[in-house]
Predict the structure.
Amino acid sequence: MTNLTAEVTDLLQHLIRNACVNDGSRGSGNEVRSADLLAGYFDGSGIDIERYEPAPGRTSLVARIEGRRAEAPSLLLLGHTDVVPANESRWRHDPFGGELIDGEVWGRGAIDMLNLTASMAVATRRLASEGFRPDGTLIFLAVADEEALGTWGSEHLSRHELDAVGADYVITESGGIPEPGGDGALRLPVLVGEKGSCWCTLRVTGTPGHASLPYKTDNALVTASRVVQRLADHVPETRIHDTWRQFLAGMALPPEVTEPLLDPERLVPALADLPVGMARQFHACTHTTIAPTVVHGGTKTNVIPDQVDLQLDIRTLPGQTLPDVQAILDEALGDLADRVEMIEAHDDPSTISPADTPLWDTLERVTQGFYAGSHLVPMLSVGATDARFFRRQGTPAYGFGMFSRKLTFEDFGRMFHGDDERVDVESLRLSTEMWQAVARDLLAG
Ligand SMILES: [Zn+2]
């Protein structure tokens, strides 16, 4: 193991062991542990460190290498330090042990995204200790609360601390997992945009009564089950949007694969021939999806329920907002639409950055040093990242990383928020070297 690989591996292991688990509640996360860890890691490097703590324990850390020219482009490397919960009984190794086993670091956050956060920190420290004095400023932000709504992290910082975290370009998770294109050359996806999320609660009402007399009663749970079934049966409109076209063009797959995927009539039937992980991804990229996820209702075994609340995770395409979602729900529910009331909705619309920026050109140049002959392809992320807060400020933000060929796109899909999350140390080294090269290319002037 090289020194650099050992350094980034060790930092990742410690970040995993800090177990900054974010369950969505204000008191969870405790990212202060990893802010302390990183502050200690940067100690003695001469880098300026600032800490921000909008709520107790929800600490974010900013490390800066100030550029020499204010007008030169600046770059923010954005990594989150929180992780989602893990069900330990389903894992083969301790999800918070950070164990190194056969060249892989195991644990929650190993690919989402403590791997990248660790590699960004090591790249920043190494650049500083080599005396890197760029024209443009380099900022590393280890941010709290990405795995919930960003309230105590990127939302807060992008609104109130833009002097500290604002930059001309942002890179965060994830992307960059190498996959061969139709011509055999590797493709490295760059997440230029992401779907929106609209999380809402539908209330279904009925009439209470004694459950010993169910004949012809108005049972809210029975109605709710029909509502769920209609949502599950709904066939959403297929939307062939620009980023999807650019992605398919970039992959250079054979025409017999590509053509149906560009035809709204043929896309869904064509998914049946693909591996299920890829089919699910392609479906989500081209449709507004609705997943019923939580149900609360009923009071007692012998009472006909008069109220059931259903929570839906709805993911929207570029350009869609809450009225579009309401129209889709009305269409899906048909004559049941007037049996439900939307009592809560959190609409977080889709965001997109252009793919023709100096940062894109930098990535194109730099990646040749890792995978010669590879090509970048723009892609729409189906999940949300903190990039959205910066895109809304008008800043181009991409999701990218550098990975070995050990794990496939299917593996990554399974491990994101899943069991047995792990990353190989070669990928850690590649990402660390890539961030250094990106900073040198974009900021050096
Ligand atoms: Zn993440």
User: Anything to note?
Assistant: The first strand starts at residue 48 and ends at 52.
